[in-house]
């Protein structure tokens, strides 16, 4: 059964996630995603497929932050990041943009909208437009 692209799919209770650790999940259309509970209590979801290694391993990646420099008078900002457990490329968890391609080609990842409703994590059935590569 395929959910509409704008539908939210229940994934798991929020309490099933461990801060700063990933969990793999499967959307109804068979897409594998990686879900992360960050230290600030927010939840992020991205494609599980690592575009550099070709393996479905991003839920095992390292979560952190990266300072994005501001332009002109604009201050810099910290963004949540994910680093691949295989070759250590890093992505912005909010946009899927590559922050460190490890000297290789720039391969972004798909990011999925997440909502926590009544203590349960729900993820959109399709990636946010304009984020990453294929899910």
Describe the structure.
One of its GO terms (biological process) is nitrate assimilation. This is Nitrite reductase small subunit. It comes from Brachybacterium saurashtrense. Keywords: Nitrate assimilation, Oxidoreductase. With 135 residues, the protein is mainly β. It has one domain (8-124): Rieske [2Fe-2S] iron-sulphur domain (Rieske Iron-sulfur Protein). The chain has no helices and eleven strands. The chain has strands spanning 8-13, 22-26, 32-37, 43-47, 62-68, 77-83, 90-92, 98-100, 111-112, 114-117, 120-124. The strands form three sheets. Strands 2-3-4-9 form a four-stranded antiparallel beta sheet, with no helix packed on it. A four-stranded antiparallel beta sheet has the order 5-6-7-8, with no helix packed on it. A three-stranded antiparallel beta sheet has the order 1-11-10, with no helix packed on it. Strand 5 and strand 6 form a beta hairpin. The protein starts with 7 loop residues before the first strand and ends in an 11-residue tail after the last strand.
Straight-line N-to-C gap? 18 Å
Number of E-state strands: 11
Question: Order of strands in the sheet with the most strands?
Answer: 2-3-4-9
CATH superfamily: Rieske [2Fe-2S] iron-sulphur domain
CATH architecture, please?
3-layer Sandwich
What global shape is seen?
globular
Give the uncertain stretches in residue-range form: none
Helix content: under 10%
The oligomeric status of these chains comes to single chain
Mean pLDDT: 92
CATH class: Mainly Beta
Give me the secondary-structure category.
Answer: mainly beta
Strand content is 35-45%
- The structural domain count equals 1
Number of helices: 0
């Amino acid at each position: 059964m395929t959910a509409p692209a704008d539908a939210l799919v229940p994934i798991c209770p929020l309490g099933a996630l461990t801060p700063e650790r990933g969990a793999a999940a499967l959307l109804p259309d068979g897409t594998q995603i990686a879900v992360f509970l960050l230290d600030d209590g927010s939840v992020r979801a991205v494609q599980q497929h690592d575009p550099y290694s070709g393996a479905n391993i991003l839920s095992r990646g390292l979560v952190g932050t990266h300072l994005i420099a501001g332009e002109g008078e604009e201050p810099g900002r910290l963004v949540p990041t994910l680093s691949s457990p295989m070759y250590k490329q890093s992505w912005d968890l909010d946009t899927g943009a590559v922050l460190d391609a490890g000297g290789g080609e720039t391969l972004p990842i798909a990011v999925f909208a997440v909502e926590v409703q009544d203590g349960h994590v729900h993820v959109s059935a399709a990636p946010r437009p304009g984020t990453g590569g294929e899910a």
